[in-house]
Structures are given as structure tokens and as C-alpha cells.
Write the C-alpha cells for this entry.
Amino acid sequence: MINENFLQLSDSYLFSAIAKKVRDYKAAHPERRVISLGIGDVTQPLPQACIEAMHRAVDEMGCAETFRGYGPEQGYDFLREAIIRHDFAPRGVALDMDEVFISDGAKSDCGNIGDLFRADCTVGMTDPVYPVYVDSNVMGGRGANITYLPVTAANGFVPQVPEHHIDIIYLCYPNNPTGMVIGREELQKWVDYARREHSVILYDAAYEAYIRHADIPHTIYEIPGAKECAIELRSFSKTAGFTGIRCGCTIVPKALKASVGGREVGLNQLWNRRQCTKFNGTSYVTQRAAEAIYTPEGQEQVRRTIDYYMGNADRMRSRLAALGYEARGGEDAPYIWLRCPEDMGSWAFFDRLLNELSLVTTPGVGFGPSGEGFVRLTAFGRREDCDEAMKRMEQWNL
Ligand code: PLP
């Protein structure tokens, strides 16, 4: 017998449908240069500081005296310590080393964290949404328990705190796909809700490094009370080009407790147990690369790459706005959420951009029903391509 919950999954048809349309278009128009504004992966190479750290680590692995075998499942102390010192302490957040779990990226932990919760828990997530939250809950038998919290013009693109009880809430800020961020006051409302309702917030901060406005929280733990109700998932993928290297971290505060039959159980302890059973740690070489992000040179190199991507976002956003488009996001995130003109649906606008301008985007409706009427643009491409794409839109007779 199999886990029949898998049969409840809807086909992840978005990216395959896009790929097919692009393939057909290229076959029919081999002379046209197709530009993708839909790339969800980084394109700039790794920071030099990371490359050098990896070379050194590989040399250590080649020598009996410095060779390392299995590492700690929770990650090496040198990286956990660097994360606390650079990402949390300067923001007034004190964490113990054993509250930080090094991962092989945020996607695995986004999916795996569900191991901690009962199959009959109720789940809330924004719509549009990063599909991993939905599918991993379907696999875990919670598909029918999902409440979608719309993010639309009707609520000013701010998801509203529900009026009923939800056990597990996913928040992702800066947001994929909308590129929007959450302010302190709004985030405080979620923390207050979670504490009142004894809910858990799973806070995905994969795009934290893209925040530029000073008043936007970089971690949910900047919000008072968050340690009692939130787990935070972080990633080096978009911060430092680690999409192919694979490293991130998950914070499970010791103050986060569940009450089971009158007994308090720490989620930190459960996650530690889960990791020790099912995960054997991120590779030593990878963790040395991640540590190098925090050196002065690493910080400088990371900043330069992020500035490059955000320069793309700035140019696209301002040129689209000048053309009269409603373009949201893209200020503290590498994503722009573009409203389709003339009340066109997401796929209709996608098709026109592809067929008339040879531009590839991602239809917003692919991220959930509230994404209908939008397309997502990403800033991860090359500068020349972003400029050329905007030139095509400026010359377009829509
Ligand atoms: N969370 C969000 C919101 C993402 O968009 C992504 C990647 O696209 C991830 C997590 C996964 O990141 P990682 O590469 O660390 O697995």
C-alpha cells in the first residue's frame, strides 16, 4: 500500500506548461531571440570568498590529519556561530547555538517541518503561494485542512489575520511570488494571533538579503513574542548563489513549546530528534563556503551581486511604471508582480508577451487563484536582457 495522499496532489503543471509553450514558440520562430524574465534561479557565479573557502576545505578533505567524515547533523559550530553573530545579534536577536539547524536549503526543511505536526492540524497559507507549502501538506494528509489567505487588491495585498483558529501558518517575506514585504506592525499582528491561538508560524525568510528599506524586519524574531510561536527557514540560495551548492538554516527556538496532555514539549527537541534520524548534515565543504559569506570580502561580494539583481528590478519597475503598468514588489525582493493590462488573464498576457515580444514570464495564476490577472517577473537575469525586454515593451503596440 502507498501513501494515498500523493494521489491528491495536483500536477505541478505550471513550469512544464511554460516550457512547452516556449519550446513550441522557438521551434516556430527560430530567428527570434527569446528573453526569459521568468528565471527563478540565480545567474551570477558564487562569491570568490566562497570559492576560495571551498578549495581550502577540499584540500583538508584530501589529507588524513584534517579529513572530516560525518559531521554534526545540526551543522558545524563555526557556521551556526557565524549565522547568529552576523544575521541575528545585530538585529537584537539572541539565539543559542542549539536553536540553529544547518540544512541543505530551505526547500527540504519547508517540506520536512511537517513531520512535527499531527495530520489533522489545520494549515493557513497566503494565496498566491510558493507551491512547496501546499504540496508538502497534501503529502502529509493535511490537504483538506488548508485555508488560503488571499493577497489581492481588495485587501491592499496584505493577508488578513483569520477570525477562526488555524494551527499552522506559513508566511513568506519577502514574498515569492509577489515580491512584497511585511512591516513590523503587520507581522506583530500575526505573532499576537499565533500566541493567542497557540498556533505555529512557519516563517520563510529565503529572500531576506534583498530587503533594502530600513524599517522592514529581516527576521520574525525582531518581533516581540515570536520566539514562543515561530520557526524561521532561511537559505543561502538567493543570498549568495547557493542554489546548486545547497545550504540554509532553520531556527527552532527553545521557547517554542506545545502542550500535550498537560505536558510541555519543546519543538526544538523534536526537530533535533527528527534531524538526527533522517538527516546526516550538510557537507563540510558547503558549510565552509557558507561561512565565507560572512567574511568582510564575502559580505562585499554578496552585496555586489544582490545590488546587480536589484538594479535589474529597479530598471524594470521604473520603466514599467512609466508605461502605465501597475508593478508591485521589486523594492525589497527580486520579484515584480505585474498586473496584466486591460483585465487580461495571466495566461492570455503570458501568451501575448511570448508571441509578440518573445518574452517569457510566469503566469501569476500558477501560484494560486488570487494570482489570476498578474504575471511574475524576476530580476535574476542579465542586465542587457532586462534592458532589451523593457525596450521591447516600450515599442509594443499593445
Ligand atoms: N522558499 C521560497 C519562498 C523560495 O522561493 C525558494 C526557492 O525558490 C525556497 C524556499 C527554496 O530555497 P532553497 O534553494 O534554499 O531550497
